[in-house]
Design a protein that fits this description.
two-stranded antiparallel ribbon, six-stranded antiparallel β-sheet, 4 helices, alpha+beta, Type Iii Antifreeze Protein Isoform Hplc 12, 231 residues
Length: 231
C-alpha cells in the first residue's frame, strides 16, 4: 500500500486562483550582483595609485639618503676650520652638487678654507685644504703695530701693497723717497690681534725674492700695509 503526499488543499486553491501573470518566479541566487558606483571605483583606484607612488618616492629617498658636511658658522677664506664650524646633515640624491661625506669630517678640522664658506652651505671637498702658492711666491707672517695697516678688516685674498717707511728721532714715520720699497702682495690669512693686543698678526703672500727684506723691515717696524684700489 502506498501513500501519496500532495500539496495542501489551501495552497492548491491559492495557486489555482492566482492569475498566470502573477505566478511566482524563482530567481537563481547566483544571478544577483551588487551594484558598484563608477565614481567610487575610480576614486579607489586613484587612492591606490597615489599610495603606491608615495611609497615608492619614500623608498627612493631613503635608499639614496646621504650624510654630508654642512657649514654651521661662516668661515672666511684663509681661516682655519674648527670643529664647531661644521655639522652633519642628511640629504637625498643631489646630482651635480659637490659635497663632502660625513666620514671625512675629522680630516677637515685644522685645515684652511680655500673659499668663503657661508653658514648653511654644503662643504665641497675642494673648498677646504692647504693654500697653494704660485711658483716664486713665499708666505710670510707679519706682526704690525696699530697704524701700520688699515682699520677695516683685510680678508684673505685682498690685494695690498707693502710699503717701506722710515722713522726719525721724534718717532715720526714717513715713506722714503728714492729707496722706498713697494711690493705687491696678497693677504693669505686675515689679521688677528696678538695675545697682548698691541699688534695684529697676519700672513701675506709675497715674491720670494723680496721675502727676506720684507721680514727685516717688519721686524724693525718700518713696514706698512696699504690696501690696493679695488681690493
Amino acid at each position: 500500500m502506498s501513500t501519496t503526499t500532495g500539496a495542501s488543499p489551501r495552497a492548491s486553491q491559492r495557486e489555482r486562483g492566482r492569475p498566470e501573470n502573477e505566478q511566482a518566479v524563482a530567481v537563481p541566487v547566483g544571478h544577483l550582483k551588487a551594484r558598484r558606483s563608477p565614481r567610487l571605483v575610480a576614486a579607489g583606484l586613484l587612492v591606490a595609485c597615489l599610495g603606491g607612488l608615495g611609497g615608492a618616492m619614500a623608498y627612493q629617498q631613503a635608499s639614496h639618503a646621504n650624510q654630508v658636511i654642512v657649514v654651521q658658522h661662516t668661515v672666511p677664506r684663509g681661516e682655519v676650520v674648527r670643529q664647531s664650524d661644521l655639522a652633519v646633515v642628511t640629504i637625498g640624491s643631489a646630482p651635480g652638487v659637490h659635497t663632502t661625506p660625513a666620514r671625512d669630517l675629522d680630516a677637515l678640522i685644522g685645515r684652511r678654507a680655500l673659499v668663503d664658506l657661508p653658514a648653511g652651505s654644503l662643504v665641497a671637498t675642494e673648498s677646504v685644504g692647504e693654500p697653494r702658492l704660485p711658483d716664486g711666491t713665499a708666505q710670510l707672517g707679519l706682526k704690525l703695530a696699530a697704524g701700520r695697516l688699515p682699520v677695516e678688516p683685510l680678508p684673505a685674498g685682498t690685494p695690498v701693497d707693502l710699503v717701506e717707511v722710515t722713522s726719525d728721532k721724534q718717532g715720526v714715520t714717513a715713506a722714503t723717497q728714492s729707496s722706498s720699497l713697494v711690493v705687491e702682495a696678497r693677504i693669505q690669512t686675515a689679521g688677528q690681534p696678538s695675545p697682548d693686543g698691541s699688534a695684529v698678526v697676519l700672513d701675506v703672500a709675497v715674491p720670494a725674492a723680496q721675502a727676506q727684506r720684507i721680514a727685516d723691515l717688519a721686524a724693525r717696524d718700518l713696514l706698512v700695509i696699504v690696501r690696493r684700489p679695488g681690493g
